[in-house]
Specification:
Elements: H1 34-43, E1 51-55, H2 59-62, H3 71-74, E2 84-87, H4 89-94, E3 104-107, E4 109-110, E5 122-123, H5 127-132, E6 137-142, H6 149-166, E7 170-174, H7 184-196, E8 201-205, H8 211-216, E9 222-225, H9 232-244, E10 249-252, H10 254-257, H11 262-275, H12 279-292
Parallel strand pairs: 1-2, 1-10, 2-3, 3-6, 6-7, 7-8, 8-9, 9-10
Antiparallel strand pairs: 4-5
The structure holds ribulose-5-phosphate (5RP).
Ribulose-5-phosphate binds at residues 55, 57-58, 86, 141, 173, 225-227, 251-255.
């Protein structure tokens, strides 16, 4: 049976050229399925291998925290300069314009407020809703050492099972209880456990000593959470040090949206993450942009 096309052009099967088998730019992700890789490549820039995720999910347990009182006013203008958004499905549906083209990681856990024991969380979203919302990924808190440690770990493994079914990556967020020591030993344990149990990305906090032992002992990409608001130079330095020591970017919230000039800070963080700009230069850029945007 002849082939159906009627083109007169001679066919070329490149018989002497082996098919290219591209590798994959993200650590530990080479054996994932195509859909999962494609989603991760929307979030992590394949050129720099890094991401600037904007975390605005805090309301799921904190309510309208400073800087997130009005997401339409405070956050929507920042979206063009992030690589991805990390938010709840409630905010996504009610406030984020559906014609924005950035990928979204959806917060998939919840339950207790700041008034109660935070580790007592459950999965708070069906995977079908994440698919309906075209999520690039889903994120969940894991409380290693917390009162409900086992429950939070099992929440994550259940979410990983759901994500694997549909090719949706899961980001485990290593949450630290008030009484716990935030050091490399703790985060090595928490990050490695999350990765071993199936998380595709791990979000964790920066520690000034031995952060590179956390990234090197975690077999999947790590993104750094910003934590509480710091002076801009300190936040830029922390982001710089994190990526220089092996993090694949940041998922930052308060240090961007609580800054005096969030749009300027967003641009400065971008330069640090994607172009290795030195923190002092990034601070100068921040100051210049801050004046221009006034
Ligand atoms: C809260 C979160 C936040 O997304 C995370 O803490 C990042 O925000 P910030 O940079 O403000 O710490 O996961 O549970």
């Amino acid at each position: 049976m002849p082939e159906a096309d009627v083109s007169k052009k001679e066919k070329n099967y490149f018989i002497d050229t082996p098919q290219k088998t591209p590798g994959y730019f993200l650590k530990g992700c080479g054996n994932l399925d195509w859909g999962m890789k494609h989603r991760l490549a929307q979030v992590f820039n394949p050129v720099s291998g890094r991401t600037v995720m904007l975390a605005v999910d805090h309301g799921y347990f904190q309510g309208p925290t400073t800087g997130l009182e009005r997401i339409d006013q405070n956050i929507v203008p920042l979206i063009p300069n992030c690589d991805a958004l990390f938010c709840t499905r409630g905010i996504l549906r009610s406030v984020i314009p559906a014609d924005m083209t950035k990928p979204v990681f959806l917060r998939a856990s919840g339950g207790p407020s700041i008034l109660k024991e935070l580790s007592n969380e459950e999965i708070a979203m069906d995977i079908e809703d994440a698919i309906r919302l075209n999520a690039a990924g889903i994120g969940i808190q894991v409380f290693i050492g917390g009162e409900y440690e086992t429950r939070s770990v099992h929440n994550m493994t259940k979410l990983v099972n759901m994500g694997m079914r549909y090719g949706i990556p899961v980001m485990a967020v290593t949450a630290v209880g008030k009484d716990m020591v935030r050091d490399a030993q703790y985060f090595r344990l928490a990050c490695r456990m999350c990765a071993e149990l199936g998380a595709n990305v791990v979000k964790t906090y920066f520690v000034p000593e031995d952060f590179e032992t956390i990234t090197s002992s975690c077999p999947v990409p790590i993104v750094m959470a910003g934590g509480k608001k710091l002076p801009e130079l300190d936040a830029l330095t922390m982001a710089y040090n994190a990526v220089q020591q092996g993090a694949s970017g940041v998922d930052m919230g308060r240090n961007i949206f609580q800054s005096d000039a969030p749009e300027a800070m967003m641009e400065a963080v971008n330069k640090v993450i994607h172009e290795n700009m030195k923190p002092k230069d990034a601070l100068e850029l921040y100051k210049t942009l801050k004046c221009e945007k006034k």
